Amino acid sequence: MTLQLCCAWIFILLLPGLSDGGKLLVVPMVGSHWLSMQQVVEKLVEKGHEVVVLAPEVSWEMKMTQAYTVKTYPVSNTLQDLNDPFQEYVAAHLKDLPFPLNALSLYDRSVHVFRVFYAQCKDLFKSKETLQFLNQSGFDAVITDPIFMCGVTVANYLSVPFVFFLRGLPCDLHYKASQCPDPLSYAPRTFTFNSDRMTFFQRVENALVSFLELWYCDSYYRDAVKFSSEVLQRDVSLLDLLNSASLWLLRFDFVFEYARPVMPNMVFVGGINCVEKKPLPQGIYRPYRLREHPPAGEEFNL
Length: 302
Hints:
The protein has helices at about 5-15, 30-45, 80-95, 100-125, 130-135, 150-160, 175, 200-220, 220-230, 240; strands at about 25, 50-55, 70-75, 140-145, 160-165, 245-250, 265-270. By secondary structure, the protein is of the alpha/beta class. Strands 3-2-1-4-5-6-7 form a seven-stranded parallel sheet, with helices on both faces.
């Protein structure tokens, strides 16, 4: 599905009339997630929407343009504070560990990364000036990548409709929150490496991993749920925060996923994962002959 069709869905959803423009708040996720979302944001501006991007003062790859308004808020961590846990997270992915050691290693690093980045969301709600701006701006809707839940909390705090633009959520939360059928006998779980055609014992393994996912994601998002309950002044669950999304724009298709039933408000917009490709400048890449261990002190030059 094309980027133009993706924007058309948002356009139809948010506007009371085809000739009116909406006032939209965008709460992105940093890094490559923003490289994907930025294209949609720029298209929305071209369609006549007033767009405000809410971003931390310290972030990755959050290059902005003058097409939209950027509202930054102060944060307590530095760029190095973001870099260190993420490098550990990448290193955990490169380790060739068997199941369940691979899942445990990734879980430990993922929780660390989440806590570091979610601290920026807590800083957002500590900024009285930022909260005053959000409350007085009269936004019609929020567009957010929900992977770190900050935009979800902001949308619920403002009590406005919200749209998800995402690649997916851990534990198949994007299917559970939207109440999609998710049969264990057919839909393989992460880390099992099963296909959609499983033996009896693989289905048993799939069911066991599914039960573990309940603990995994509840623990992973515990800080976010607790903080959201404090902000919203009511007890909320993880699914409470997610299941009221008006539209799910999913950045993948079934070329890389197993086909399954989805809800009418879930739209597959294709693999919009990065900016448009460009040729590498001369000298930026030096070929390196792969070996098991590079010499001490020598790094890959990419």
